Amino acid sequence: MKKLIALALVFAVMGVAFAAQSEDVLNVTVIVSTKTMVDVNPAAFSYTGAEPGSANYTDDSGYTAVQIENIGSHNITHIWFNVTQPEERPFATANATKYDAGNFVVLKQEGGSAYLFVDRLDFNESKTIVYLKDPSGNIPPQSPYKYGRFRNASNEWFWFVNPDANGWCNSTSATFYLANEPKTSDSTGTTDFSSCSGSLSTAPSGSGCRSGSPTSTVDDGTQNWSYIADVALSSNEHYHVAINQWCNETRWVKWNVDAPGASDALSVADYFISNDLPPGDSVIAYTGIHVPYGTMEGTVKKGYLTVIVNDV
Fold this sequence. Notes:
Layout: H1 2-17, E1 38-41, E2 55-56, E3 65-70, E4 78-83, E5 105-109, E6 116-117, E7 119-123, E8 146-152, E9 155-162, E10 175-179, E11 209-212, E12 216-219, E13 224-234, E14 237-244, E15 249-253, E16 282-290, E17 305-310
Antiparallel strand pairs: 1-3, 2-16, 3-16, 4-17, 5-6, 5-16, 7-15, 8-9, 9-10, 10-11, 12-13, 13-14, 14-15
């Protein structure tokens, strides 16, 4: 055994003694091209058994958020979103496919205090609501007023709009009225719109209502809209509200700067991020759905949330 160890040592020493070593240095130059790329995971969300009037923040797989990663070579400056919306009023159709799941999507920023809609489309009422009093004091409401509700899970804020002298709502001469208190399963909320006061941009207090006129108008290529840049539902919930020319559609916008008027008034409707996101970094968007009352049972039409980035 001792001989074997000695022999091994000899070989080891001989190996070191006769080893020759040399080195040289090669220059390596890499120039990375400019490429804006983003990777989003998970790629799909599914919510089974969501009830009307419910807020759902965990999907069937346990997902609660989406990771948006800059996999390109250039700083991403802005991130915002688009969502799909129903093509017509889905309520009272008894057809689940008339609803669009994209219209239910809410997002919250890291450190944010509230889940807010990307861009929710709501419609005026198709039938008379007999317990509402219009701004002129009529019960039920009379022409020329159009009215509907902003449907946010278990809360529904009634709104009225009074067209301009020509009957249009894509006008700064139109007037928009909003309930201070939402209708819930336990309360009718604000129903009297005959004496609204206060600013739409100020968080409401009390049981009354507020009113204001659109600040500007815009044509999105499909129809004309007027918009109010800041409408507050609470201190943590502010929306950019657009009203179409026919007074029968409203859009409640937070994270879609492509919505009518949003890019002209970036005060409430805003980018999800507006500071540089370097390559290899990521941002989290907490996801959920707010299913309104009156949603038909069954599988709602598949919706899409589109992530948009730029590097300006």
